[in-house]
Design a protein that fits this description.
The protein is α/β, with parallel strands linked by helices. The chain has one domain: Survival protein SurE-like phosphatase/nucleotidase (Stationary-phase Survival Protein Sure Homolog, Chain: A), CATH 3.40.1210.10. Helix 1 links the parallel strand 1 and strand 2. Helix 1 crosses helix 4 and helix 2 packs parallel to helix 3.
Length: 282
């Protein structure tokens, strides 16, 4: 990239364009390159990789290279790469800083992580950053750490399909015991649906509940956070479960007879109805 076009850094989030985490990240990432902010105009938590396909997207420019979009994090990234930054595509995408952790199976519905996933799908090294503590001072610290990580990614040759999910524990900064490269934990919820009754006597429901976590394996992200360590988990977009694939491949012969097919249109003739073939004599 020429000196006339410094490295372009794209920032997004799911907490909305006005969030403290995004503001802290915007300020810090200017040390790395030229920053573009393309984020939802309002919170879009837990929307996953939802794309807006049935209504137009609208962009409101709030400042130099800062845009609020009436859509999801995935919409923001798609619009930024496909239109707003089409002449100078980003060298790196950072999504966050999220208000709250994104651990384990929750990455599949996280708008923060999905924003980073969308960047990776466009061939851009991407980072999703989340923190447990919501204080302004902590956002500044997390933004500085993210800047350091971003600089390292850009200095080195990025790994193929680089997508990192970063989580910061809520303990005091001086008590963070280190960094651990982790796997995803498995997360489940107790009493996930809460039923209540409104003043008119009609039932309504909240999806909430208490989180319960089981580790899939050692060195999980939840384990690192519980030990007051920063968790960095490399994610992969290929969700194929290869062990199950090997087992399923042995089922092929048994399922062959179950394959749907068009019924034959030819009328079947019984053996009794068949006319004897004519024998030609010399």
């Amino acid at each position: 990239m020429s000196s006339h076009h410094p490295l372009q850094i794209l920032l997004t989030n799911d907490d909305g364009i006005g969030s403290l985490g995004l503001k802290a990240l915007t300020s810090a990432m200017k040390k790395v390159g030229e920053v573009w902010v393309v984020a939802p105009e309002r919170p879009q938590n837990a929307v996953g990789r939802a794309l807006t396909l049935h209504k137009p997207l609208r962009s409101t420019q709030l400042g130099k290279q800062m845009f609020a979009i009436n859509g999801t994090p995935a919409d923001c990234v798609t619009l930024a790469i496909g239109k707003l930054m089409e002449h100078h595509p980003p060298a790196l995408l950072v999504s966050g800083i999220n208000q709250g952790l994104n651990l384990g199976d929750d990455v599949t519905n996280s708008g923060t992580v999905s924003g980073a996933m969308e960047g990776r799908l466009h061939g851009i090294p991407s980072i999703a950053v989340s923190q447990e503590d919501h204080s302004r001072s902590r956002y500044k610290m997390v933004a500085e750490f993210t800047t350091c990580l971003a600089s390292m990614i850009l200095r080195k040759s990025p790994l193929k399909d680089l997508l990192l999910n970063v989580n910061i524990p809520a303990c005091p900064i001086h008590k963070i015991s280190g960094i651990r490269f982790t796997s995803l934990s498995q997360r489940r919820y107790l009493n996930q649906v809460i039923e209540k009754v409104d003043p008119r006597g009609k039932k309504y429901y909240w999806i909430a509940g208490e989180r319960i976590t089981w580790h899939r394996k050692e060195l999980s992200d939840f384990q690192a956070i519980s030990q007051q360590m920063i968790s960095i988990t490399p994610l992969h977009l290929d969700m194929t479960e290869y062990q199950s694939l090997k087992v399923l491949q042995t089922w092929g012969e048994g399922l062959t007879g179950c394959v749907p097919h068009e019924p034959s249109t030819r009328k079947r003739v019984s053996a009794k109805q068949r006319k004897p073939s004519r024998i030609m004599r010399p």
